[in-house]
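[audit] Reproducing an earlier prediction to check determinism. Same input, same settings, fresh worker. If the tokens differ from the archived copy the diff job will pick it up downstream; this log only records the rerun itself.
[audit] input (117 residues):
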Amino acid sequence: MKNEMQIDRNVLAVVVAQALLTLNRISNRFIAQRWASAIEKASERLAKQDVQMWTPGAPSGGLVVFSARSNGRIYHVTNEGCQCVAWHEGFPCWHRAALRLLQRYNEVTEEQQRKRA
């Protein structure tokens, strides 16, 4: 089943800003910059709804990403890893950044809803 989640760009911007701030804790500046690039790419794709995501049946609370820009490849993404080339070469990937941004996005929106209730 397709995830038809509508992204609130204002909430996403807050989540992205928080994620970028956490990169200060990474001592390896090269890896921190790779994460920054992955976060920015994930943010752009999520804001444009330019990624198709399915979550039912994804183990470990993961995400299944259908990448139209990679010849329709399908990547299963978890907090522990991804099936993409970048991840297998030891680099951060936008797929994992997207998963984490969505997790934080959901946490923030749930917190906002609790405060309104």
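[audit] rerun output stored. Observation attached for the diff report: The longest helix spans residues 94-116.
[audit] end
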